[in-house]
């Protein structure tokens, strides 16, 4: 009987297709061969076993209606295209249903989209394949309380159990027999019908809004077989009688068991039933009396009514029925218009009805809204008042919930004449809409307003283009209201708060205190829209074992999102809303939702902060820091569990931190600078943790490949870290993977992990826990961890600086240049990290130095360690720099009163200043480029020069190797050209600083010739270098002549060198002589080249400059002459001392002999004076250039024997006078002259002289005076300076004017000398002064010195007269001879 026939292949009425059916045999013969087994339900998709030829006609093309040639009935849409009937049709077989116990115990497979302490939003997995495939299709529907969802398009109706755990649930697809004529037509209206007595599955009724066509399927299961089994269409299809022209069905309400309520665009309301009194399928429609629109008289109404759109006394926004019918087959129905008019009926199953209420509540609602929110009401226009939706308050609440809800006592009443409504109202504001929940208690003759609950979290106006209208749901136990808009769901608490002093006042005023309220926003793209909604509430009735109804403990709203599926918004603990600690929307919860659940870019919800938040910027910043810390520490529930892929887990946490910052920016939070840096540092740690995890896995694999213990240093560090510095594992709970556990819970202490790398290696080495092979590997890993961790953290900081709003910060080497005020301690430069990274670098250097050539070690690891040295050194220097800048910031509370931390910061500063020493050590490893890069990064210019010079020397030595192969020689030469070019570029880039440092290295390593012949210098830096160094003036003047051809500067250099720098007598004499010669040569060159040499009347303006230059040169030559004369005097004294040194064996003996012979006049009891003379005499013997005062000390203290020849003149005091006159000025000259004459006076035996004059003639006295040294000195003064104007400064100073010299203060040479030495010298000066005073007072020194000077002057005058006479006689004789 199941064999298809021609009649069965024709299109049947109200065809329904159930896509998930099992194919049946195609012949009757095969049917008899099948065993009579129980039919099983198979988990098939919609498209399996679908006959392609049969499936094609199910697709309708929406276009204008046309007449049908295949049926006598008029449809309101196009028929399906004419096509040959398929040869065979397959009857789907219903599979076995799951037991209720199986459905309850198995999870629904839902995906949590977001959650907080009040609710959880989850996306259910069940969604028909047809709806998945066409996300932009225009459809809407309903969600039934019994667990089914209905989706309606212009051509199809789809029913499925939305809570099923399968992604492709069992689906019932119905092809509508009368599809819409145009795409812009209103979508069909539909509802699920309660199951009949013969089945447990609901039926389906669909109403076409324009034509009024009604189609009813008694069961969704049997509907798929109606067409195949050729059931009659009688009783399953009908039309609404008496519809006006242009009138449409606007709403359809399931009011079972009293049937269905239809609301029309005209404001009319009708009752529709789909079963007769016997329960058989039968459609009947009856308009209710007292509707909110016009009701025509007569059967068809008047012609005027037929051709009018409506009598439209009201625009019905909602029709609702009571939640708990008091009588079987009877419901109370209320319809409301947008402007606040309400009308109610009591409707029975047969269509009989009575009018109950008819009120206009607009004014009352406005008054109560104004009282509840006066400030907000002032922003609104009362003319814009509208009712958006309403719902009957639930009845039959438990006693405890009666006291918890804010609804009035009408909730307890069972009187059907009193109806309790919750109305959602709206008022327009300039910014959007102001919504309120208002409680209305309706009775036969009156009404009153109860609770008023303003909605503050949502203000977007209702979209006119939305496929579904806003819906209000208040599930039992009436503590939470759900308001469903087209792209948002509002959750608002209507629970009673615990009693407080303000509670009674608010209750009397019918004002609900501010309680929990939040908004769940959907993405704003065109395809995402809520097209159907419903609610779930805790089930209190008998257990329906075969029902698809979802069993829930807490109320929820369920919405169907186009293209995405069903989303459930359920409270976590409904009783908490009425507790003393009700859930609150906090800054932390809003951020956590956006960050934790908004990571994916294709997320169904949006957390972009489209609405204003009620929190201060400071609260948001504090919440952001708290959330960031919890993400890093995995204290967020989503991140708190172990995962198989730690890499993905770390990436998710890292992305959450980035999204946190993006969310704060989207919300326009004013984030302070310290918070931004705190958030960035947490993100840095997460990024570095991901890098280190990958390194850990790489280390483990490399160790296995090398045959070592696979336990990497990362694992060792985790175990070594002190228990107080990490999260303990719970061994009893199976937490055995310590490494994963650390990366899960302790990344926030990453700086401890990096610092512990050195501590672990130190402990392993100290306790000899590993052999050298494993120890080498651990040292390498320690350096690699420190280098990689810090480098990746700083790189991340540079890359993300702008994202964290810190783009204006100035970074250098990844760290702040300045501005550490108020910032937390950088994790990359803590005391522990800075100290241990440096020690790790030193450990690598020592290990390579001591074990670098050990063949038993893995050379690959050693080479890797060697190549890592520049990087880890760089990381250490950066850490030093950052720590110093942070710790020494003025007013830093962490170091201000902490002397230990300040001391460590200063040590770090010293270490960084000495970076040249640490970097130069790396030259030994031949890591030229890497070390050079680090040196340049830290502006270590001398180090750069050292590195490049060493590389040049290495290349030169390699190129000079005769055994070098040609290919290697070519590479070496090429590298030399490259390094020469690089040096030249650095000369140009860094100027004198780099050039001078380079020449310093060349001079130290290769000598003067390398400086003069350095080829990369194209800018003359060698000349500037030599001229800038006083100690290189001996080379500079040669460079001036040979390279620069600058004789003038060469002369100046030589003169400066000779006058100020040179310390050797012979060198100074040569340099001054050459300098004088060069000056004279340059002067001669200028004279010869000057135009004035050929033009006697040159009136050029340059004469003044020329004279000034000439005077300057003459002054220089005069200074040279003075210095040369002083050198001559020093040489003269040396020649007097030299005979004493003939028998000396060494320099020490020379000095001893010289002191014994020539130091006898220096009192031995004055050790300081004797030491002063000995030091000066030692320098004289070493041919050092003596300072003027030192030379005067020698000249005035030295004793020069006559060696048996009394005729040898004693001229040292005259020389002392000459030295003072040539080199001293001012008070120093005056005091020095006094000192010279005092010692001159003390040199002769004036006491004996004074006694010897008794009974002597004048000639004898004069002869005796001529034998004194004073006479010789005065004689040389008068003889060499006969001009009275010149020799005044050389005249003997009266002895009385010399008294007291240097007895209380010494000359400037002894400033800064030890007090004991100064005191001893002043005693020597006082001793000289006392001796002089004694000679003056007791031996007539003043008279004899004057007489002696006069005698010397007379002798010189006499000699000059004789020379004049001889000259005159010689001239006369020469004249006579010529005659």
UniProtKB/TrEMBL annotation:
Please provide, in alphabetical order, the Gene Ontology terms of the cellular component aspect for this entry: nuclear pore outer ring
Nucleoporin Nup133/Nup155-like C-terminal domain segment(s): 679-1346
Name the Pfam families for this protein.
Answer: Nucleoporin_C, Nucleoporin_N
Q: Which UniProt keywords apply?
A: mRNA transport, Nucleus, Protein transport, Translocation, Transport
Q: Where is the composition biased (Basic and acidic residues)?
A: 60-79, 1105-1114
Note down the stretches annotated as region Disordered: 1-107, 1090-1114
Nucleoporin Nup133/Nup155-like N-terminal domain: from which residue to which, for each copy? 114-568
Instruction: Give start-end positions of Polar residues composition bias.
Output: 1090-1104
Family, per entry: Belongs to the nucleoporin Nup133 family.
**What name does this protein carry?**
133 kDa nucleoporin
Which organism is this protein's natural source?
Answer: Zalerion maritima
What lineage, starting at the top, does this entry show? Eukaryota, Fungi, Dikarya, Ascomycota, Pezizomycotina
């Amino acid at each position: 009987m199941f064999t298809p026939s021609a009649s069965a292949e024709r299109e049947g009425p109200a065809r329904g297709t159930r896509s998930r059916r099992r194919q049946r045999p195609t012949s009757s013969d095969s049917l008899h061969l099948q065993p009579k087994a129980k039919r099983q339900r198979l988990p098939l998709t919609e498209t399996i076993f679908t006959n392609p030829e049969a499936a094609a006609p199910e697709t309708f093309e929406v276009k204008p209606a046309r007449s049908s040639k295949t049926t006598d009935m008029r449809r309101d849409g196009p028929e399906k295209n004419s096509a040959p009937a398929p040869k065979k049709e397959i009857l789907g077989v219903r599979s076995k249903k799951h037991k209720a116990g199986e459905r309850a115990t198995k999870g629904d497979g839902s995906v949590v989209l977001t959650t907080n302490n009040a609710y959880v939003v989850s996306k259910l997995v069940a969604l028909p394949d047809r709806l998945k495939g066409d996300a932009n299709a225009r459809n809407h529907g309903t969600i039934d309380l019994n667990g089914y969802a209905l989706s309606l398009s212009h051509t199809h109706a789809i029913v499925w159990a939305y809570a099923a755990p399968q992604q492709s649930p069992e689906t019932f697809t119905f092809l509508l027999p009368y599809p819409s004529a145009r795409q812009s037509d209103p979508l069909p209206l539909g509802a699920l019908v309660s199951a009949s007595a013969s089945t447990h599955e609901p039926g389906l009724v669909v109403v076409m809004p324009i034509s009024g066509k009604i189609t009813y399927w008694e069961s969704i299961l049997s509907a798929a077989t109606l067409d195949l089994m050729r059931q009659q269409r009688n009783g399953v299809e009908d039309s609404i009688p008496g519809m006006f022209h242009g009138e449409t069905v606007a709403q359809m309400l399931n009011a079972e068991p009293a049937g269905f309520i239809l609301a029309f665009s005209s404001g009319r309301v009708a009752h529709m039933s789909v079963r007769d009194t016997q329960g058989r399928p039968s459609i009947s429609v009856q308009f209710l009396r007292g509707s909110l629109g016009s009701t025509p008289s007569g059967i068809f109404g008047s012609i005027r009514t037929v051709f009018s759109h409506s009598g439209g006394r009201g625009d019905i926004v909602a029709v609702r029925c009571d939640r708990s019918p008091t009588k079987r087959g009877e419901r109370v129905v209320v319809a409301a218009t947008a402007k606040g008019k309400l009308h109610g009926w009591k409707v029975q199953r047969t269509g009989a009805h009575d009018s109950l209420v008819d009120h206009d509540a607009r004014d009352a609602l406005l008054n109560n809204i104004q009282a509840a929110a006066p400030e907000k009401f002032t922003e609104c226009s009362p003319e814009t008042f509208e009712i958006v939706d309403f719902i009957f308050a639930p009845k039959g609440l438990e006693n405890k919930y009666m006291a918890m809800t804010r609804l009035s006592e009408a909730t307890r009443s069972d009187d059907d004449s009193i109806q309790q409504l919750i109305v959602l109202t709206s008022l327009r504001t300039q910014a959007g809409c102001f919504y309120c929940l208002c409680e209305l208690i309706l009775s036969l003759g009156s009404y009153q307003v109860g609770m008023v609950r303003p909605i503050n979290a949502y203000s977007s106006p209702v979209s006119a283009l939305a496929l579904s209208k806003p819906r209000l749901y208040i599930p039992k136990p009436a503590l939470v209201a759900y308001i469903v808009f087209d792209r948002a769901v509002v959750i608002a608490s209507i629970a009673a708060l615990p009693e407080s002093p303000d509670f009674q006042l608010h209750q009397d005023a019918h004002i609900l205190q501010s309680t929990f309220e939040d908004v769940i926003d959907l993405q704003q793209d065109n395809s995402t829209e809520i097209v159907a909604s419903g609610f779930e509430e805790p089930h209190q009735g008998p257990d329906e074992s075969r029902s698809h109804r979802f069993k829930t403990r807490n109320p929820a709203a369920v919405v169907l999102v186009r293209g995405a599926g069903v989303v459930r918004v359920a409270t976590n603990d409904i009783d908490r809303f009425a507790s003393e600690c009700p859930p609150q929307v906090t800054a932390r919860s809003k951020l956590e939702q956006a960050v934790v659940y908004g990571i994916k870019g294709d997320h169904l919800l949006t957390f972009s902060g489209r609405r204003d938040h009620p929190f201060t910027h400071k609260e948001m910043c504090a919440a952001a820091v708290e959330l960031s810390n919890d993400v890093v520490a995995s204290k967020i529930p989503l991140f708190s569990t172990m995962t198989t892929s730690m890499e993905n887990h770390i990436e998710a946490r890292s992305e959450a931190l980035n999204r946190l910052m993006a969310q704060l920016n989207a919300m326009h939070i004013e984030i302070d600078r310290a918070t931004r840096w705190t958030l960035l540092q947490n993100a840095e740690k997460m990024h570095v943790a991901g890098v280190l995890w990958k390194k850990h896995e790489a280390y483990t694999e490399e160790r296995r490949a090398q045959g070592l213990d696979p336990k990497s240093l990362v694992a060792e560090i985790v175990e070594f870290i002190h228990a107080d510095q990490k999260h303990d594992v719970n061994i009893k709970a199976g937490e055995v993977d310590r490494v994963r556990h650390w990366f899960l819970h302790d990344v926030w202490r990453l700086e401890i992990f990096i610092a512990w790398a050195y501590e672990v290696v130190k402990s392993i080495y100290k306790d000899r826990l590993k052999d050298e092979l494993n120890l080498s590997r651990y040292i390498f890993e320690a350096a690699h961890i420190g280098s990689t961790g810090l480098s990746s953290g700083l790189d991340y900081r540079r890359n993300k600086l702008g994202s964290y709003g810190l783009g204006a910060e100035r970074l250098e080497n990844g760290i702040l240049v300045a501005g550490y005020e108020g910032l937390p301690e950088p994790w990359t430069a803590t005391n522990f990290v800075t100290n241990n990274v440096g020690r790790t670098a030193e450990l690598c250097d020592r290990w390579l130095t001591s074990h670098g050539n050990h063949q038993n070690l893995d050379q690959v690891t050693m080479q890797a360690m060697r190549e890592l040295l520049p990087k880890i050194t760089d990381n250490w220097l950066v850490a030093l720099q950052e720590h110093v800048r942070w710790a020494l910031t003025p007013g830093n509370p962490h170091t201000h009163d902490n002397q230990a931390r300040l001391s460590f910061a200063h040590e770090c500063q010293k270490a960084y200043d000495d970076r040249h020493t640490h970097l130069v050590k790396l030259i030994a490893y031949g890591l030229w480029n890497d070390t050079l890069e680090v040196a340049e990064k830290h502006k270590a210019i001398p180090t750069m020069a050292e590195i490049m010079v060493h590389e040049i020397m290495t290349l030169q030595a390699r190129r000079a190797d005769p055994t070098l192969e040609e290919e290697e020689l070519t590479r070496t030469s090429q590298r030399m050209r490259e390094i020469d070019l690089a040096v030249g570029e650095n000369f140009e880039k860094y100027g004198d600083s780099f050039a001078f440092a380079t020449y310093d290295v060349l001079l130290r390593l290769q000598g003067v010739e390398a400086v003069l012949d350095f080829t990369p210098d194209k800018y003359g830096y060698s000349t500037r270098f030599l001229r800038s160094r006083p100690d290189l003036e001996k080379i500079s003047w040669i460079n001036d002549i040979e390279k620069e051809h600058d004789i003038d500067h060469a002369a100046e250099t030589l003169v400066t060198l000779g006058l100020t720098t040179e310390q050797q007598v012979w060198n100074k004499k040569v340099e001054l002589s050459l300098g004088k010669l060069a000056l004279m040569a340059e002067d001669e060159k200028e004279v010869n080249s000057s135009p004035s040499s050929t033009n006697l009347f040159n009136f050029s303006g340059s004469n003044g400059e020329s004279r000034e230059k000439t005077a300057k040169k003459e002054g220089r030559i005069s200074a040279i002459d003075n210095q040369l004369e002083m050198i001559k005097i020093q040489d003269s004294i040396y020649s007097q001392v030299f005979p004493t040194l003939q028998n000396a064996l060494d320099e020490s003996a020379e000095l001893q002999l010289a002191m014994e012979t020539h130091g006898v006049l220096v009192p031995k009891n004055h050790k300081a004076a004797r030491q002063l003379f000995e030091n000066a005499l030692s320098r004289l013997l070493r041919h050092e250039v003596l300072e003027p005062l030192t030379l005067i000390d020698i000249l005035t203290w030295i004793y020069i024997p006559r060696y048996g020849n009394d005729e040898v003149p004693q001229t040292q005091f005259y020389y002392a006078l000459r030295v003072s006159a040539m080199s001293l000025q001012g008070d120093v000259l005056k005091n020095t002259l006094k000192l010279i004459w005092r010692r001159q006076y003390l040199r002769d035996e004036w006491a004996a002289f004074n006694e010897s004059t008794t009974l002597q003639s004048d000639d004898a006295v004069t002869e005796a005076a001529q034998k004194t040294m004073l006479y010789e000195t005065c004689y040389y003064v008068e003889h060499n300076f006969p001009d009275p104007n010149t020799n005044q400064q050389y005249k003997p100073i009266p002895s009385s004017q010399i008294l007291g010299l240097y007895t209380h203060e010494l000359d400037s040479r002894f400033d800064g000398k030890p007090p004991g030495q100064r005191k001893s010298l002043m005693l020597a000066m006082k001793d000289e002064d006392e001796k002089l005073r004694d000679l003056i007072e007791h031996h007539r020194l003043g008279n004899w010195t004057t007489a002696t000077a006069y005698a010397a002057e007379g002798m010189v005058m006499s000699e000059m007269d004789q020379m004049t006479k001889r000259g005159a006689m010689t001239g006369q004789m020469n004249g006579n001879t010529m005659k």
